[in-house]
C-alpha cells in the first residue's frame, strides 16, 4: 500500500521498506543525518500508514472506557490520552493515542500493523453502546514535524496559538491554508506536532511545511531514524516491547490501567497480573557494539532475557537497548551482559528514558 505522499518520497529519492504492508520511506539521505536533524532542528515525517478510527455518539466515552484500559470519559475536550487495548487475558493488542474532539467524538489512532484488529475489536466491544465506530484511515493523512524548531516552522504557516497548545492537546487549525487537526504529540522525545489532514491535501501541506522549514534546517525523515529516536526516548514499539504475551505492567506502563472504572475488557486478568516477574529495563553498553533485537541477555552465564530493541545511540554516543529481565535484575546499577554475535559485552541497567530534552 502507498500513502498519499508516496510520489513525494520517490521524488526525494527515498529508500523504501515494507512496513505492515505499506511501502514506507526508511531513509532519504542518511538515518544519522535525519536523526540529528530531529534532535538539533526538525524532521518531517509521513505517518499516514497509521490508523485513524472515529468513535462518536451519546455513549462514546462509556464505550471507550469499556473497550480500552484507560478512562477516556475523564479526558477533557481538546486533550489526548496514551492508552492501550488489551485482550481478555490482559495481553496488549495495541497501544493507542486517543483524542477527545468533542463531548461525543473521539479519534483513536492505532499502529499500522494493528489497525484492522483495533477496528474489529472496537466494533465488537461498543456494540451494546449508543456509539458509532467509523474507520477514517483511508481518507486521512498524518504528517509530523518533530524537533526543537518545530514551533518556528509550524508557526510560520498557521495563526493558531501554539504557545497555548499543551503537550497531548489538540485543536482544529488552518495550517498552510489547509484545515487540520493540530496535535502537540509525537514519538521522538522532542517537542513537535502531528497534523491530521485529508489525504487529498497531504501533498500541498507537505510542500508548505517543507518551504517553511527550509530556513530552520527541516529535513524529511524516515522510519530508521524514527526508531532510534523513540528508542533513546524509552518509548515502546508494538511487536518489540509490547505484544499479546505482555501486559502494560510488564512494560512499566501500569499507570495507563484505570482500575477505578467499574468494568473493562481484561480487567480481571490485569488485576491478577499487576505484579509481574519480568519487567522492561534499559541497558547501557560501554563499547561500540550495539545489542540488537533478540540478542541474549546474561547474568553471569545464565540467560535472563532477550533484547527487544537496541542501537548505537546517535545522540549519546554509546550502545543502548531495552530488554525484559527478572524484576530483581531491573534495578539501575545492576551489571549484566549481552551476547553480541558470540562476543559477551558488559551492560549496565539504567533508568528509562535514555535521553530527555
TrEMBL record:
Residues 278-355 form the Aminomethyltransferase C-terminal domain. It catalyses: N(6)-[(R)-S(8)-aminomethyldihydrolipoyl]-L-lysyl-[protein] + (6S)-5,6,7,8-tetrahydrofolate = N(6)-[(R)-dihydrolipoyl]-L-lysyl-[protein] + (6R)-5,10-methylene-5,6,7,8-tetrahydrofolate + NH4(+). Belongs to the GcvT family. The glycine cleavage system is composed of four proteins: P, T, L and H. It is an enzyme of class 2 (transferase). Keywords: Aminotransferase, Transferase. GO terms for molecular function: aminomethyltransferase activity; transaminase activity. One of its GO terms (cellular component) is cytosol. This is Aminomethyltransferase. The keyword Transferase applies. Transmembrane segments: none annotated. Its EC number is 2.1.2.10. GO terms for biological process: glycine decarboxylation via glycine cleavage system. Substrate binds at residue 194. InterPro entries: GcvT, GcvT/YgfZ/DmdA, GcvT/YgfZ_C, GcvT_bac, GcvT_C, GCVT_N, TrmE/GcvT-like. The gene is gcvT. PANTHER family: AMINOMETHYLTRANSFERASE, AMINOMETHYLTRANSFERASE, MITOCHONDRIAL. Pfam families: GCV_T, GCV_T_C. The glycine cleavage system catalyzes the degradation of glycine. Residues 5-261 form the GCVT N-terminal domain. It comes from Amycolatopsis taiwanensis.
